# Entry
Amino acid sequence: MTLSIFVQILTLYPIIGAICWTIGGIFYRTIYVGKFLDKDFKKIPKNKEPMITIMIPCHNEEVMIEETIDYLMHELEYHNYEVLVCDDGSTDTTPEILDRLRLKYDNLRVLRVNKNNGKAHAFNIGLSFARGEYILSNDADTVPEPNALQKYMNYFLSPGGQNTAAVTANMDVQNRSLLVEKSQTVEFSSIVGIIKRSQMGVLGNMYAYSGANTMYRKDAILDCGGFRQDRATEDISIAWDQQFNGWQAVFAPDIMFYMNVPNTFNMLYNQRKRWAKGGTEAWLTNFKRVAKHPIKNAPKIVMLLDQTGSILWSFYYLIFTTWLILKVIYFVFTNDSEQLVHTLDMTFLFSAFISMVGVWQLVASLALDNHGAKMKYLLFAPGYMVWYWQMNAITIATTFIPAIKTVFGFAGKGTWVSPTRTKMTKKGGDS
Amino acid sequence: MTNEPETTGNTHPQPKDFVQDNFFEKGHWWLKIRQVLFNFVFLAVLVVPIVILFNSLSSGRLINSFHYWTWADGFDLTDYLNSAILLAFVIILVCSLAFLFRNNYREQNVYPKKKTYDAKKLEERKAILDKMYSERFGDLKSRETVRYYAVDGEKNLPDRMIEDLFKENGVEIR
# Structure
């Protein structure tokens, strides 16, 4: 009986997830009281601006770094800030570019880590050099909108902001020409947009920050002993660590930042493998901590149950799909057309329900995100819905064992490799 | 700049230069044709099962010439999925509302009124970290003013060093 219910819930996991996120997203918009509306953002006078350190961890970023720094130096509507680049053992011309830019900008500082040791490590050293009481983690291929710092500070300076550990912004895709890029544009609205709204509004907790652009309170990072250096995704682990220490994590959908996303399947697959591994690591690390105080941690239990469903469903889906393919091949070879048609009909029936619920979630999320500015990308949703499933399931399954090794201390040392970048303002060419 | 607060919420449109999609620009016809064709195939993968489902539920009356099934277990599965989705919807709605009210209470009555983190432990942890950083990279003043600093390999921070430092000093993170 219990097993039967468990299997039913697991089978329906994608549908249950879509219902949860859609209801959560709508509740965030309508009943949740903690969100900021456009009219709530107040301009902070120049003499009252808290000091911010924009920290850019980078490794071999010669294509993007100058453009990003130029933008940060000229376009932001904020005055009291510095840019601290943590160059983690770059072997290209990044150090020369930074030397030149340091002469140009007084508020640019450079920390060179000679032996490449990963983003979290570079951050942990950078923290000790940062003058700001707030730290903006800003990837080298990422820029926030011009008034982002003002908006970020509004969250921290609000009455409830005293407990805010970090505010993570809403990611938007800069390069959207190719189909693989369009799929990510749709995904960041549906996944990042509606799931984070839902976690924020209903649970008051967040599963992960967007490490590419998140404003941290420096104290709240130090309170956790910095970022975990042995994890695949420092932005997932720090989110959990801060919340366990009593801090509040905040998602700010109205702070936009623009990012260059992977534009080949290989790059995307590698990025997703890293994310999946980081997710599984967080799952393994936090289960025990949550179980110690289940009532107090009820919202975190919901997030861990979701993650559990996601991991189990990935294996279930891959095993079921393999079994289905073998069954179809068998019926083809035994010329059993009735069983073949029956199997395909039943499979299509189930996929029809998943598709309908998926479309419902996508419409809701695109409508909620960025005031509906991305509704036109609904046109490209089918591509996203068809092939992303497979990739997410495969990445979770293939990184499961490596994640276990990391959490239990059997993994090797992690360094980082930046994906191939393209210039943000590059125009023309269908590539 | 005046001291009078003014809104900063909606003063900027999206920075146009940063969003690039040739599909919605003039020209790029090959890209447009290619993407429309690919998208059409993906759309078919999604839509065909839905059409078959509704065609079957209406016994082929929706599109006469299109495939439809008459399996008894197909109707059973459809009924089951309908009921399961409805039940899931109701349960999720009720649970979400309960969590939401808890969350709204914390937003209004907890976060603005008291510190939810351990301020004493925070100060102790900061002092431990400052000591470690000063030993490795120089005192706070020099660290915060230097414009270029290179960290040699032997000064890198071992992975679990800070965790162990906290443990040794009785401010372990649990």
Summary: Residues 426-431 of chain A have pLDDT under 50 and may be disordered.
